[in-house]
Amino acid sequence: MTRALILHAAGTNRDREAAWAVEKAGGEPVILHISELHERPASLHGFQMLVLPGGFSYGDALGAGRLLASDLRWLFEEEMARFVDAGKPVLGICNGFQALLKSGWLPGLPVHPSGHQLDARIQATLTRNASNRFECRWVWMALNPDSPCVFTRGLARRGVSRIGCPVAHGEGRFIPGGGVLERLQANDQVVLTYDRDGAVADGVPSRGPAGYPANPNGSVADVAGICNGQGNVLGLMPHPEDHIVPWQHPRWTRGEREELGLSIFSEGIEYARGL
Amino acid sequence: MLHCIEVFWRAPEPDGRALDVTTQIKQSGTVRVDSVEVSNLTFIRGDLSRAQVERLADALLVDPIVESSRWWSGPGPSAVQAQRLTEQGSDRCVEVGYRAGVTDPVATHVLRRARNLDINSIEAVATGTRYVFTGRQRDLSSDDLHEIAQRVLCNDVIQTYSLGPMEPAFVPRADPSDQVQIVAIREVDDEGLARMSVDRVLYLSLEEMKVIQEEFRRIGRDPTDVELETLAQTWSEHCQHKTFKAEIDFSCEGGVSRILPADYDPAAADEGRIDGLLRTTIRAATERLDREWVRSAFVDNAGIVDFDGTFEVSFKVETHNHPTALEPFGGANTGVGGVIRDILGVSARPIANTDVLCFGELDIDRQDLPEGVLHPRRIARGVVAGIEDYGNKMGIPTVSGAIIYDRGYTANPLVYCGCVGLARQGQHPRHPRPGDLCVAIGGRTGRDGLHGATFSSAELTHETGQTVGSVVQIGDPITEKKVMEAIVVARDAGLYHAITDCGAGGFSSAAGEMGRDIGVEVELSTVPLKYPGLRPWEIWLSEAQERMVLAVPGENLSRLEEICDRFEVEVSVIGRFTGDGRLRVRYQGRTVADMDMEFVHDGWPRPKMRADWKAPLLPDGDVLVPGDLSTVLLHLLGDPDVASKESVIRRYDHEVQGATFVKPLVGAQADGPSDAAVLCPWEIEGWRGLAIGCGINPYYGQIDPYAMAWAVVDEAVRNVVAVGGDPDRIALLDNFCWGNPSLPDRLGSLVRAAQGCHDAALAYGTPFISGKDSLNNEYVDRHGEKRAIPPSLLISSLGVVPDVRKAVTMDLKRPGDWVYVVGQTGAELGGGLLHRLHGVAGGSVPMPVPHAIEMMRSLHRAMLSGLVRACHDLSEGGLALAAAETAIGGRFGLALDLTDLPRTPGVETDVMALFSESNSRFLAEVAPEAAAAFEKALVGWPVARLGAVTDDGVLRFRGIGGGVVVECQLDELAWRFLGTGQEP
């Protein structure tokens, strides 16, 4: 059985949905509170996949995901490193993405030796939406077919080009540090970008900037999700775990069905099983 | 030492927060401001080295990609202020900080996290926000800045501001206080008693004060302040609902006649003497209906119904009006937090929130505002932000609601917060046993919210804000989230015998209520405090948020502690349940209250009240000929009550928990207003779901509260039926928000409404399972002039959807489909949208439809058989509005003909046919091939095919006389509906 650890911190709120998604994808989810993992950090290696779910860890008191990021650094730095280096899949959704970014696990570009070690690891941020508003709506993401991301490359092979699922966040505006976007694009580490809804039927990603509200938060270059260079760590703002049956789709009563967000979990589990 | 760290935006991308503040200032109608820079201030008291301050800033405060920081240190506040003044100046600058003691999670986290950075010398942390007005605007005078600060940036009730560098407000150091006052009540005359009630913010009547005096004379001693405060809280209208239990002399003249079942005991319907309004109306209906699926009505923190034989669903709706009027964010925020705790108080996991809001008109001129009242726009903005903050952070989807804008709510806004919970059957223990420990879990206790319970009996005045600041608090949703998680685990492990929340009245209410039948003893010095210095009565009465009280058998304590520890929840044993029937409170061993439980809970004298209702003298009103009906329709669509609430709805997370199968916004472009949300919780097996709807219409109530009650029950029921809810499995909740009940006309209209609830519930077969009243929503101006809110009855509905995969949404689905109207249209424009917009008072309000539920049953069967592609209920604005909404939802045209509209003889004009707001009506889209079966399913009911869905992008009505009377382009309809939606 592929065991997935779903890490819960005070304020995490989409842990149960992540668990259902893992289960539906054929994995075995285990929700652990961060203090439980802290008691035995090495138990992380009993899992084949790690999910950092959405929510407001610690109330996002000092910026979204910030305090969870400091937990990841202060409490689990070594264990995380071993897990990631072993190529095991790590999925950070919304608050989990924010934490991965703010602890430097994403995008994980090589650090110039000159930089201050920790700060140089922080290469991009997710900050307050351009509207300064929390926003809950469905978005459509175009998949980068050339990305090495283990959660999506199989989908691209199947011809899947877009995935729809809701966003629900107030701090999802992706802003890269100087020169970072270009490097991410060059490495195909930009896995998912916000896309306009209209072209769903054709399955052809639209061209040009998505614009609001398709890009709900003002993210630079419509970035919705990125991976590390190895492709085994994915962070994204939208919630694939909230689209795991067709009746969650906002237009199911109009007869519309689309690729489920569940597929991202299925790919991750599938990949983990092969490790 | 004091250190001040400022964190400011430096990215080339514009700072959304700063833009937002600029917009708010613009909307507030103060001076013109081009742009503003916003930065965060963190004040740290303690001896930190330079390196430590830098480490703290880097590790915790600054986002290095978009922010930078600078900092100052000095021996004390004035030194730091002086440095900042030299460096930063005070020009064009406002700084805002919380008052001491207001919940500040940011400060708490900085304090806690600093230890991880090996910084252990921090004594206290406070935060602030700095606004600097940049740009080319003319120089702002200090008067301008004061105005901006007061209108937009700072709420005096919880914050202070300064022009230029601020001084942080740390909670002053204080020693523990054991001060208990003996209140000499036995020898006081009537005048003295009345004064005592006012001076101590007890809000007890003279008669009640005399009963207390009598009791203590009998005992032979004077009460302590703890005892007196306990009685005032327990006997408050808020906690005791005295008006609904009072003996009422009622007179009624005119209005709609009551409709009662044929076999109804006429004595029980006697108008003259009402022996307890709750008992004889709302509860009587539930008892008479005696539905086997009602698990608990009116006894617990929330009503509970069976869901599927395995799970039970609980539902509670509360109001938080007075605090919201003073501090909109905090009031609404803690309102949501409070009702969630009600659901935790029945051992359930919250699965949905609802919010119904009533505000004054957003465009009211500042000069027309009553004195001391916040502008409705500011109230609305704060309320929405407060709900967003709490609901979203709790991870509970906010799925249903409404917003009403009316002048009557300018001084007294209403915030109805609801919460729905889910639990397995039999998981909610409710009987503490003698010997059980009295355990408090969750947040710490501070001076927050003292006198909240009694204050809710007050009328607001021009100076309320200054006198009762402590009543208002800010919530901390993450603390409550942790409490929720701990409770769910403790519940599953069966660790407690009873549980309740600390709401109004704090421990006094929670422990007092829980120990009601057996007695309880509490030691106040064991209560964890936010800061020292609270007097015993303050600890006992504090309404600090995020606390729950449990009755725990001693042998389970360590397991409970373990669970709470895992979720970082503080636990403390504060007393034990005794079995001697007394309420005993101690402080450091000394008895500070000792009263008989029976006196505490039942000793209050039952009030006798007068209620008169007389049908208002209003013109007939049904003679309106407003000209071009297309223009009228467009105008109506843009009315604030009707126009899309998308900008608000999207700020609430309605997707979390993954169960929202019919969302609040539906249709081709996800902007059609759904009649009700449908949830399919993941815990349950299969596809059974829940539909949540509501009905509210204060406008009908101003003409006839009885008819209003029927109309809003009908609306709440038809909302649920329209999405596929089973009409025979709908439970209702009532929330009455009214004016001062000691005025006979206010109480008269309340009685009429309660009677309407009763009669309608019997007709629809929908039991009430929970309810709440909030009275005294009244504003008294400087001259003593009183203004009550309109009679505001909210009916919330909870229905079972047999199969969520057969749920139906309101958006038109396919050109060529036929469109039916179900239900009869009467000449009922009174209180309706059309009349309101044309300033017409009077007219006939929508009349009760006694057999509506049978028709809805037929409609439901048709829906279950898959015969209905879209369904939308007809409410405000009648047929015309509903048709426009379905067209917008589906982005299709619609061609309808009024000739065959089922209608009463009074409906002779197109205006009436289009805009009448008669109850129990629906629009249904049916595929032509399903039409025969649909018509058969509804045979015997007033149903007619009015036309078809089109793909020409036009909404067209042919009138009764045959000609086209409405022709509107879809784009224009959508633009009116969406484009003018008011964002608070």
Walk me through this protein's architecture.
The complex is a heterodimer of chains A (275) and B (984). Chain A is built from eight helices and eleven strands. Chain A has one domain: Rossmann fold. In chain A, 27% of the residues lie in helices and 22% in strands. The model of chain A is unreliable at 199-203 (pLDDT under 50). Chain B has 984 residues and is an alpha+beta fold. In chain B, helix 12 packs parallel to helix 27, helix 15 (376-394) runs parallel beside helix 18 (477-492) and helix 18 (477-492) packs across helix 21 (557-566). The longest helix of chain B is centred in the last third of the chain and has 21 residues, at 744-764. The interface between A and B is large, with 61 and 66 residues.
> Distance N terminus to C terminus of chain B?
42 Å
Mean pLDDT of chain B: 92
Quick one: CATH superfamily of chain A? Answer: Class I glutamine amidotransferase (GATase) domain
User: What value does the Rg of chain B take, in angstroms?
Assistant: 29 Å
Main beta sheet of chain B: 7 strands, mixed
| Unreliable residue stretches of chain B | none
Taken together, the total number of domains of chain A comes to 1
For the biggest sheet of chain A, the summary is: 9 strands, mixed
Outline the fold blueprint:
The complex is a heterodimer of chains A (275) and B (984).
Chain A: E1 3-8, H1 15-24, E2 28-33, H2 34-39, E3 49-52, H3 66-85, E4 90-93, H4 95-102, H5 117-121, E5 124-127, E6 135-143, H6 153-157, E7 162-169, E8 173-176, H7 180-186, E9 190-195, E10 223-227, E11 233-236, H8 262-273
Parallel strand pairs in A: 1-2, 1-3, 3-4, 4-11
Antiparallel strand pairs in A: 5-8, 6-7, 6-9, 9-10, 10-11
Chain B: E1 2-9, H1 16-27, E2 35-46, H2 50-61, E3 67-74, H3 77-88, E4 93-98, H4 105-116, E5 122-134, H5 142-153, E6 159-163, H6 190-199, H7 206-219, H8 225-234, H9 237-240, H10 242-245, E7 247-253, E8 273-275, H11 277-280, H12 282-289, E9 294-296, E10 303-306, E11 311-319, H13 321-326, H14 328-344, E12 349-359, H15 376-394, E13 398-405, E14 414-424, E15 437-442, H16 452-455, E16 460-461, H17 464-467, H18 477-492, E17 498-501, H19 506-514, E18 520-523, H20 536-541, E19 547-552, H21 557-566, E20 571-577, E21 582-587, E22 590-596, H22 597-602, E23 608-614, H23 629-637, H24 646-649, E24 660-662, E25 665-666, E26 672-673, E27 677-679, E28 689-696, H25 698-701, H26 705-722, E29 730-737, H27 744-764, E30 768-774, E31 778-780, E32 786-788, E33 792-801, E34 818-822, H28 833-837, H29 852-864, E35 870-873, H30 878-890, E36 893-897, H31 910-915, E37 922-926, H32 931-937, E38 943-950, E39 954-958, E40 964-969, H33 970-979
Parallel strand pairs in B: 7-23, 12-13, 16-31, 18-21, 29-30, 36-39
Antiparallel strand pairs in B: 1-2, 1-3, 2-5, 4-5, 4-6, 7-8, 9-10, 10-11, 11-14, 12-14, 15-19, 15-20, 17-19, 18-20, 21-22, 24-27, 25-26, 27-28, 28-33, 29-33, 31-32, 34-37, 34-38, 35-37, 36-38, 39-40
Helix pairs in contact in B: 12-27, 14-15, 15-18, 18-21, 26-27, 26-29, 30-33
